[in-house]
Design a protein that fits this description.
Layout (H helix, E strand, L loop, with lengths): L4 E3 L4 E2 H9 L5 H8 L9 H14 L12
Antiparallel strand pairs: 1-2
Bound molecules: FE2/S2 (inorganic) cluster.
The site of FE2/S2 (inorganic) cluster has 12 residues, from loops.
Length: 70
């Protein structure tokens, strides 16, 4: 199964972003830190925002893990 390529600059696909969300990423800036998606031209940022928002809406808060960047 193929995954939609979200960030062309850094070759980050939707699967990688969802994986970061499952590990506890909670915002677009978390996704940027974990995957580098959205850290170059920034054109993919609205798509990343949408993926993060849909994930947060669908996943109950108590099932979301918190990520500690130290
Ligand atoms: S397409 Fe994602 S930073 Fe350029």
């Amino acid at each position: 199964m193929t995954s939609r390529l979200v960030c062309l600059c850094n070759l980050v696909d939707e699967k990688e972003i969802l994986s970061a969300l499952k590990k506890g990423a909670n915002s677009t800036s978390d996704i940027q830190r974990l995957t580098r998606a959205g850290t170059s031209c920034g054109k993919c940022l609205p798509v990343i925002d949408e993926i993060v928002n849909v994930y947060k809406k669908e996943k109950p808060k108590d099932q979301q893990t918190e990520l500690d960047f130290g």
